[in-house]
Amino acid sequence: MAKIADIDLGEFPLLLAPMEDVSDPPFRALCKQNGCDMMYTEFISVEGLIRDATKSVQKLDIYDEERPIGIQIFGANIESMKRAAEMVEEAQPEVLDINYGCPVKKVVCKMAGAGILQDIDRMVKLTDEIVKSTSLPVTVKTRLGWDSNSLYIEEVAERLQDVGIKALSIHGRTRKQMYKGEADWELIGAIKNNPRVHIPIFGNGDIDSPQKAVEYKERYGVDGIMIGRASIGNPWIFREIKAYVETGQIIDPPTISERVQAARQHLTHSIEWKGERLGILEMRRHYTNYFRGLRNIKHYRSKLVTELSAQPLYDILEEIEEIYSHDYEAV
Prior knowledge:
Blueprint: E1 3-4, E2 7-8, E3 14-16, H1 25-33, E4 38-40, E5 44-45, H2 46-50, H3 54-58, E6 69-74, H4 78-91, E7 95-100, H5 105-108, H6 120-133, E8 138-143, H7 153-162, E9 167-171, H8 186-192, E10 201-204, H9 210-220, E11 224-227, H10 237-247, H11 256-274, H12 276-290, H13 298-304, H14 310-326
Parallel strand pairs: 3-4, 3-11, 4-6, 5-6, 6-7, 7-8, 8-9, 9-10, 10-11
Antiparallel strand pairs: 1-2
Helix pairs in contact: 1-11, 4-6, 9-10, 11-12, 11-14
């Protein structure tokens, strides 16, 4: 049974990774409907929060149907992080999560995200200060190290646990790898099997099928799995993994109607939450996966990623449902 502080997540929880411009309320709703056990917001800049930047503050929006949920923040300045932690606490999530894993240059160059992997003492001190400044359970998401010569993740896990974090999610790559190459789960497994470590350890990286999820669960013994890129336009991955964990059976993939309904719901909520222009633009990355594998879908996908008005997009989705529901050879 995996628990973050007093939050019971069940036997083998599946978590939605925090992804910029992806893990927003419209997408989180779909993941929750399909069995995701715990979700995290997009990562939020603490400097943006304390300056009251609209985009950063909006990311604090969470809804009761999403719970349990963690709000994730990133930054490098201790005082800014503590002030942001107060704002997060006011939003009343179940968990405050610290991002020590983002590899993007504009984050790293400020010693935030994965940048702090170059200074483990600073990482520990910063975490300690945040744990002391909030009543929320604090969790951390990080990577194996800065590069292959600094794989200090076992030391990091022990020291962060010692200052009070309640769970650790580990992406099985270094910062230098970015998202290239294969995620290395051996170190993740070593941490889970370290007798000094008693907090939940969640593995992240390359889980893109129910079979792989179960294989890694059994091989590395992690408490749960965090899924990121494989969920984009594919919220059904959570229910597929859950079914396979419980029964050993691969369930049927989503029907055409389910795919279209998900895309339609996602688009509607995206527009409601962000406004028409931005809501439409930020949906575009999802369409390829919503309709992956459909023969001759390129024509429709091109329309979906170029259209700038809502009603034509709904019309295109309706046309896809009508044509592909009747033309089984195209699926």
